[in-house]
Amino acid sequence: MRPWRRKKVSEQREWFLKNGSTFLQELIADSNGISNPIRFFSSDQILKATDRFHPNCFISRHRFFTWYKGVIEDHRPYAIKKFTDSWFSEESEREVYNDIVLSARVSNHSSFLKLLGCSLEFPLPVIVFEYPENGVLNEQGACEDGTLLPWNVRLKIAKEVAVAVTYLHTAFPRIIIHRDIKPTNLTDFTFSVSLTVGKSWIKDKVVGTFGYIDPVYFSRGLVTEYTDVFSFGIFMLALLLGRAAVFAGSNGYHCNILDYMILVAKEIKIIEKGSHDCSEDDQI
User: Fold this and answer.
1) Which of 30, 180, 214, 228 is catalytic?
2) pLDDT band per the 50, 70, 90 thresholds, residue 265
3) Partners of 194 in the beta sheet?
4) 277 an active-site residue?
5) β-bridge partners, 177
6) Quick one: 146 and 46 in the same domain?
7) What is the pLDDT of residue 239?
């Protein structure tokens, strides 16, 4: 075997042992005696499926990971999630394992992508899901190509997300708080927490996406079910209005969608009051 090949195999083995032991520890701690069947893919399978993560296989990019479309076997497309290597740290490793474990826990629910497995032969695990045939939403509640979805489709999505959030909060003895609900991110559990049985809150560092973060969580670090409820409300506004949670206003400054709606509501009240006063004048 050539020296470069031996080095590659050695690195893959080292990553597998390191990632595998930590992942197994997390999975056992979460499963509570319930089986979580997950398939392990080799790095060669992942690299072949994505043509070594070629741009032609690109689906979408997020802050800490990128989605790729690839065919591993049986000619079926898969959604492959690769975390950014520059994000590598001991804390980020834990968050990646958390993503895999919680994805496995909710995998059989129709509102979430079905987890098929992962590869541990990379610096950070690469995760493999069933491919979402309906595509991926962008920040404005539109399809990948930027086309705004019809009203009935957006309302259907809102209902499905509401069901999904309720499932996270009620289906398990340990409540799952997502902490980063937004149109592009429901299937990502990187920042999610699983509360201790019988506990309804924890105090933790603030994570998530600006514009979607609950003000109580932001100011006090308290993570509760209402952390997700607030984010879901912002998600609804973004979905129904076809705007991002934070967007460029007419004056060129960034505008928060919640502040925008408060302003619109005040303007509506002024218009309604004006209309009411005019009708009284007409009667006189």
Assistant:
1) 180
2) confident
3) 176
4) no
5) 193
6) no
7) 86
Assess whether 18 and 120 both reside in one domain: yes
Total structural domains within the chain: 2
Q: Could you tell me which residues come within 8 angstroms of residue 160 by beta carbon, excluding any fewer than 6 positions away? A: 111
Do 117 and 176 reside in the same domain of the chain? no
Residues 106 and 171 in one domain: no
What is the rounded distance in angstroms from the CA atom of residue 265 to the CA atom of residue 195?
A: 37
Q: Are residues 175 and 123 in the same domain?
A: no
Residues 6+ apart with CB under 8 A from 84: 64, 65, 66
Dump the DSSP string for the chain.
--HHHHHHHHHHHHHHHHHHHHHHHHHHHHHTT-----EE--HHHHHHHTTTT-GGGEEEE-SSEEEEEEE-STT-EEEEEEE-GGG-SHHHHHHHHHHHHHHHHTTTSTTSPPEEEEE-SSSS-EEEEE--TT----TTSB-TTSPBPPHHHHHHHHHHHHHHHHHHHHSSSS-EE-S--STTTTT--TT-EEPPTT---EE----S-TTTS-HHHHHH-EE-HHHHHHHHHHHHHHHHHT--SEEE-TTSSEEEHHHHHHHHHHHHHHHHHHHHHHHHHHH-
Kindly report the CATH number assigned to the domain that includes residue 12.
3.30.200.20
Give the residue among 193, 201, 245 at the shortest CA–CA distance from 220.
201
- pLDDT at residue 83, rounded to an integer: 92
Written as one string, the DSSP assignment of 10-34 is HHHHHHHHHHHHHHHHHHHHHHTT-
> What percentage of residues in the chain have a pLDDT greater than 90?
35
